[in-house]
Design a protein that fits this description.
By secondary structure, the protein is of the alpha+beta class. It has a single domain, classed as Hotdog Thioesterase (Thiol Ester Dehydrase, Chain A). Helices cover 16% and strands 42% of the residues. It contains two helices and seven strands. It starts with 6 loop residues before the first strand and ends in a 10-residue tail after the last strand.
């Protein structure tokens, strides 16, 4: 199954291997992530399992949040909400188009639209805890 032109493999984490392969645009400024729905992504109704779509959403929104927080910080998903408007079918190209709502010192908020072959199938939103790693031993707190 073909991957759209301009998308390249994305190695997000060890977990992404289980729901991917995942792709991102070669344009570093485009936060979109995508995948081609494969037979391994099927639920019992032979559509794309919602868990696959949610995993892709978590990865896409988290990736964008990591781009806008300080380099010494990490973002951890606190919650992820989705409203599915339509299902996706095996063979379709699924994309998540994330955007940032707000970034504070300890929390970040993002949302996104999920499309299957260009049709919106879900809306998602997520909250992330932003943990600032100490820069030196003197800043560490117990």
């Amino acid at each position: 199954m073909e991957i759209p032109e301009g998308f390249v493999p994305y190695e997000a984490s060890n977990f992404a291997v289980h729901y991917g392969p995942v792709y991102f645009p070669s344009d570093e400024n485009d936060p979109t992530l995508g995948l081609r729905a494969l037979p391994d992504h099927a639920n019992t109704m032979e559509g794309v399992h919602g868990g696959v779509i949610l995993a892709l959403c978590d990865t896409a929104l988290g990736r964008l949040v990591r781009k806008v927080i300080p380099a010494n910080a990490v973002a951890v998903t606190v919650d992820l909400h989705a409203s599915f408007l339509l299902g996706a079918r095996i063979g379709q190209w699924i994309e998540v188009h994330p955007s940032i709502d707000r970034v504070g010192r300890s929390m970040a908020f993002a949302n996104g639209l999920v499309t299957a072959d260009g049709t919106v199938i879900a809306r998602v939103s997520a909250s992330f805890f932003v943990h600032h790693r100490p820069n030196s031993k003197t800043e560490e707190r117990v």
